[in-house]
Specification:
- It is a single chain.
- The chain is α/β, with parallel strands linked by helices and about 300 residues long.
- Helix content is about 40%, strand content about 20%.
- The chain has a five-stranded mixed β-sheet with strand order 4-3-5-12-6, with helices on one face. Strands 10-7-11 form a three-stranded antiparallel β-sheet. The chain has a two-stranded antiparallel sheet with strand order 1-2.
- The longest helix is centred in the N-terminal third of the chain and has 21 residues.
- It is rod-shaped and about 105 Å long.
């Protein structure tokens, strides 16, 4: 048989004919005229090289070939119907998805942790994997399905991805509560005399946005420690006289730290959520993104 000679309409007609064994009733169910159904039956007989349906005393009688087609044809059409049906509404209660998120340790603290409890409570059978952010690779990782969602700063975000701004972040000055030089908001001169720790994601850097802002004023500060992770920074602040300029959301609940507005203007940054077009309309992925936004 040449499968190219068949089309879906012919198969649907044959399925209804095998159920009704009557051309008139089949035509009514298919919303077609009786001559149209008869013409389709003639085409089916040619394609299958078999009469398929023969005249009988009370309608039509299926041939052995038609009888053999009845069940597999029904299952095939049911499977096709399920395949092209709109996706069902996502039910988190029974979901067994593994959510794959890329973020820095700061973004994990500011975004993943606030959403985690709600996601776990609503979708207890799901899992979450948080990956280190690798900016040069995120577009490719999202395209291949290695990641579902990426958190990224507003600068240099790949333009070919869907994005949603989650919030704007500002920088604050923080140090331990009993820091001898940080019992009140420092002046600019006092600020420049403090010893700082800063984050250098690539390692070994001793300059950041604060230094750029100071340079515009003809000033500088002393950075004595460069670390790759915020967790290390927070431990250093708690256990030394070092201070840091860092994102506010990272320390807004840190009772053991004094937090002040810096005595100069330091440009903040936007945090975006990125995802690929391939997951844009997926109900499970839409639900995940909604949970993240709702937790802010």
């Amino acid at each position: 048989m040449n499968i190219n000679a068949l089309d879906l309409n012919l198969l649907q007609t044959l399925d209804v004919l095998l159920q009704e064994l009557n051309v008139t009733r089949a035509a009514q169910r298919l919303n077609l005229s009786q001559p149209s159904v008869s013409a389709q039956l003639a085409r089916l007989r040619t394609v299958f090289d078999d009469p398929l349906l023969l005249p009988g005393p009370r309608g039509m009688l299926p041939t052995a070939r038609a009888e053999g087609l009845r069940e597999p044809l029904r299952k095939a059409l049911e499977g096709l119907t399920r395949a092209v049906a709109p996706p069902e509404a996502f039910n988190p209660t029974h979901a067994e998805d593994t959510w794959r998120i890329a973020a820095t340790d700061y973004m994990s603290t500011a975004l993943v942790l606030p959403a985690l409890n709600n996601i776990r409570e609503a979708a207890p059978q799901s899992r979450m994997a948080v990956f280190a952010l690798n900016p040069p690779q995120i577009a490719q990782q999202l395209e291949k399905g290695a990641l579902d969602v990426v958190f990224h700063t507003g600068d240099n975000a790949p333009a070919n991805l869907h994005q949603r701004k989650l919030f704007s972040e500002r920088y604050v000055l923080a140090g331990r509560r009993d820091h001898p030089q940080l019992q009140q908001a420092p002046t600019l001169d006092q600020f420049c005399q403090l010893e700082f720790v800063l984050i250098s994601p690539d390692g070994g850097g001793f300059s950041a946005a604060t230094d750029n802002a100071l340079a515009k004023l003809g000033r500088s500060r002393r950075v004595v420690l460069s670390v790759p992770h915020f967790l290390f920074m927070l431990e250093a602040l708690a256990n030394s006289d070092l201070v840091a300029v860092l994102p506010e959301r990272l320390v807004r609940s840190a009772a053991h730290l004094h937090v002040f507005t810096p005595p100069l203007e330091i440009p903040g940054f936007d945090i975006l959520m990125l995802w690929h077009q391939r997951l844009h309309r997926d109900p499970a992925q839409q639900w995940l993104r909604q949970q993240i936004v709702a937790s802010l």
